[in-house]
Amino acid sequence: MPVAGSLITLSHHAETLKEIASTHGDSFYKGAIADKIEKASVEQGGYLRKEDLEAHRPIWVDPISVNVDGHVVSELPPNGQGIAALIALKILQQLDIDVSKVDEPEVLHAQIEAMKSAFADTHAFVADPDCCGRCEELLDDARISAHAQSITAESSGIRAETIPKYSSTVYLAVGDANGMQVSFIQSNFEGFGSGVVIPNTGIAMQNRGRGFSLDASHPNAIGPSKRPFHTIIPAFIELAQGGNVPMGVMGGPMQPQGHVQVASRLLFANQNPQAALDAPRWRVEPGRTVHLESGFDAKVYTALKEMGHDVHVATERTVQFGGGQVVYQLQDGYVAGSDSRRDGQAIGF
Q1: Residue 43: its pLDDT value, please?
Q2: Separation CA 264–CA 262 (nearest Å)
Q3: What's the distance, Cα to Cα, between the start and end of the chain in Å?
Q4: What domains can you pick out in the chain, each with its CATH number?
Q5: Tell me, what's the pLDDT at 167?
């Protein structure tokens, strides 16, 4: 077991990275590395073949965007869950409440209930865009209005299968001196993904296939040459006053919930990035269960219980409530924030 100060050498990993660099990625999809991946897949009873890797093509997509209090919030389209955050943010703007009061129980209740509606729509319709499209009809004003009208002062329930599964993710937000900004996310899904490592390469294979449904009638049903529903969603905000905000919150089903909460604090409550990330959060679970971090006013927990929520208060702050990063562009530079719930930092150079 390595201890602090140990020197770890990953020679196979290093050789793989050098080969990927020297072949501009071709080896991974068409060459020697692809051969090793196919060999391991065959030996372990998998279905991935070199021809699948050769057929892979990266795609450039237009984001899906909504207006949020004069700002433009963008997420990647399906097959990701980013649209869930957009649905919830649109619902909140339809409600007859002051959404800037982000620490009041009525607003937190509204956020929670809006998120439940968003999760339900996302689970029902989001899948490979080649079969389900971009699902932008889920943002139709009439549909959003119907969701908003369905929210009462009483908690509603949500089915377990509606909430995505947890994963392990890396997110970063950056901005340079020329104003170029990037919102970037990567994930092998659960821990080290599938747990399958290609011998003598250091390559750990992902297990995003777990995002498929086994219901043959569902748009997200597992099938050949098909992309599964996935959770990783980098976000981007174009500010009404000018400037941009790449932002993200890691953590499987927590991601859209985190986007709604952090964006609400940034855009509705005008909090700075670090304050928005440091603030206590909630997350929904099946039924009427809602987990909350400590740090809210005592009246919040009492009021939410009175509204019918099954409230559970976390004893500590962990990545179960997400881990976020924000870079906020100003006229003369940037201000950034990094979540204390996991490793990360805000730096400038």
Answers
A1: 94
A2: 5
A3: 35
A4: 11-55 (no CATH), 64-166+229-338 (3.60.20)
A5: 63
